[in-house]
Write a structure and sequence with these properties.
Structural class: alpha/beta
Strand order of the largest sheet: 3-2-1-4-5-6
Helix content: 25-40%
CATH architecture of the largest domain: 3-Layer(aba) Sandwich
Strand content: 15-25%
CATH superfamily of the largest domain: NAD(P)-binding Rossmann-like Domain
Number of domains: 2
CATH class of the largest domain: Alpha Beta
Order of helices and strands: EHEEHEHEHEHEHEEEHE
Number of strands: 11
Largest sheet: 6 strands, parallel
């Protein structure tokens, strides 16, 4: 069933098509629907839609996500974004390519379990998420007592986006005191309920949360500088 016409006063609402109603697909669908977006979920197993619950206000389409006619019925021509999260890499990629090349959907994300294959498809313009890599990083971090949790990093893992709260001992530091050319760049600062773009000469206060983009070569030094045994100084990967 095609997605409904978007109301004139709902320009911020987007139309999303999700292929795969497993745990991830169903959870994502409910999150997007709760944010008042138009959502259609496609799955070849009608029983899978039970994961959406009785209060899901999106649409459901029975069929395979690699069938052009199924995606057409699901509203692919009107979709702003497309997600493929079935259990198979091949199906996810095929569905993503159909969405990209036959329907011209601009924003496409596919779940790929095989890391090398994920990199290949990114080069084709398909954004991928690799649970294998993400899970391995999280286990490594816990195993080595790293002071931050790994999630998908900015620019496909080439750099990390880290957020940390400053201690009293770090009050008075300027942004430029934290940055290192080519290694660390502070992008934004949260102070209370206000977020602002950082400038090199900004003076930081205790409790400020900074967001820093850190290159792999600078990660160890950055973490060592701000890591602490105290639980009130978290460092988390945000991107």
């Amino acid at each position: 069933m095609p997605l409904p016409e978007r109301p004139n006063n709902a320009a911020s609402h987007m139309r999303y098509l999700i292929v795969g109603c497993g745990r991830v697909g169903a959870t994502l669908a409910k999150l997007l629907a709760a944010e008042a977006h138009d959502v259609v979920v496609v799955d070849e197993n009608p029983a899978a839609f039970k994961r959406l619950g009785t209060h899901f206000n999106g649409r459901m389409e029975v069929g395979t996500g690699i069938d052009y006619d199924v995606l057409l019925r699901a509203g692919a021509r009107e979709a702003d974004g497309f997600v493929a999260v079935t259990d198979g890499d091949n199906r996810n990629v095929m569905a993503a390519l159909i969405a990209q090349r036959m329907f011209g959907i601009k924003k496409i994300v596919a779940r790929i379990y095989d890391p090398p294959r994920g990199q290949l498809y990114r080069e084709l313009g398909i954004e991928t998420v690799c649970p294998t890599t993400i899970g391995a990083k999280i286990v490594r971090d816990r195993l080595m007592h790293m002071p931050f949790d790994s999630v998908p990093s900015f620019d496909f893992g080439k750099v990390s986006s880290l957020a940390l709260s400053l201690r009293q001992s770090e009050a008075g530091l300027r942004v430029v005191d934290i940055e290192q050319p080519g290694l660390v760049r502070v992008g934004a600062v949260r102070r209370g309920g206000h977020v602002f773009v950082a400038s090199p000469e900004d003076v930081l206060s205790a409790g400020d949360e900074i967001n820093a983009i850190v290159a792999p070569e600078g990660l160890s030094d950055f973490v060592a500088r701000f890591a602490t045994a105290s639980p009130d100084v978290p460092i988390k990967l945000t991107a």
